[in-house]
Input
Amino acid sequence: MARQSLKDSELILNDDGSIYHLHLHPDQIADHIITVGDQNRVAEVSKYFDRIDLKVRKREFVTHTGEINGKRLTVISTGIGPDNIDIVFNELDALANINLKTREIKEHHTPLRFIRIGTSGSLQSELEVDQFLFSAHGIGLDNLLSFYHKKTSKKTEKLNKAFSRFLSDKALFSPPFYSGTAGAGLLNTIAKNQNQGITLTCPGFYGPQGRSLRLTGPLDHRFLDGITNFKHEGFSITNFEMETAAMYGLANLLGHEAISCNAILANRINGTFSPTPYKTIDQLIKFVLEKITTEI
Output
């Protein structure tokens, strides 16, 4: 039985045959992909490569592919937020698992490994600025995964029920949410003996993270103080950011592995911010690259 080709409106390609937003061809990405939010951070990662074979830029999506210590790596900027993660993860998966010429899904699945190097704000007083945090789980306060048929694992279903029950018991604001888990292999190598926790992924930086400038919202200090007490299988809710749960959710559904590596630049409980943010990010980049090239 012939496989059905994806329609032009679903799998959108550029005139040169590259995938629409990222402007990449299948042979231009590695199986290990580092994601960063900031376009300028791509070069801050790839400067440590032994060589850079490819540089592609379209919109906020900057991609460098090269090699370090004999391992081929891609680093790509996603921009900020779950909506951009939806674009990047679906298009990278398409490059690996769809024949762009025939528009057919490949019979053999190619798993990818995604490693996010990003910044984050701590929700635990003892997790101070300039430390690293590795996300064992992500809880998304956005609605991205509601647009997909979710194949919920027992692990994520258990976390969903525990978090829902906690919010109800504490009478805290309860937006729609979903959860995802880090790839076990990545967590056991990159994050071994490191700070680990549950990351809350938000669809914005101000109101969705409980910040008040001229507008206030339901995520006030009572919510921030309350959720710091949530614990699940030894993990606390440790930090806020804007991509992790979307990464984990899509990676889980698409059959890939992902891990989010966070440089803690702000502590929301203590009201502090790193005096040396760029140094801390650079230290995290070097830490992750060493782990990728020596242990994975």
